[in-house]
Amino acid sequence: MDSYLDTAVGSTFEVVSGCFRALDEKYIDQATLDMLYAEGEVLAKSINAFRKTLRLD
Q1: How far apart are CA 55 and CA 10, in angstroms?
Q2: What pLDDT digit, counting tens, does each position of 2-50 carry?
Q3: Alpha carbon distance 44, 57 (integer Å)
Q4: CA distances for 53 relative to 19, 35, 50, angstroms
């Protein structure tokens, strides 16, 4: 289960990274990037909080 959560967090950061590229290419504006970045942070923190509730023996 832990490897799936690692993948989920990694994918979240990958999407956020792609958002910076979208900003550079002017597909999105700074306000949209800021919103997506904040949502990515919340999601990554939520996944990590969930991971801490699991017993990974």
Answers
A1: 21
A2: 889 999 999 999 999 999 999 999 999 999 999 999 999 999 999 999 9
A3: 22
A4: 30, 27, 5
- Separation of alpha carbons 36 and 41, rounded Å: 9
**Residue 6 DSSP label:** H
Phi, psi (5° rounding) for residue 25? -90, 0
- Give the start-to-end residue ranges of the domains of the chain: 2-53
| 34: its two tokens | 């800021």
Burial degree of 4 (CB within 10 A; 0-12, 13-18, 19+): exposed
DSSP H or E run through 44: helix 30-53
Type of residue found at 31: A
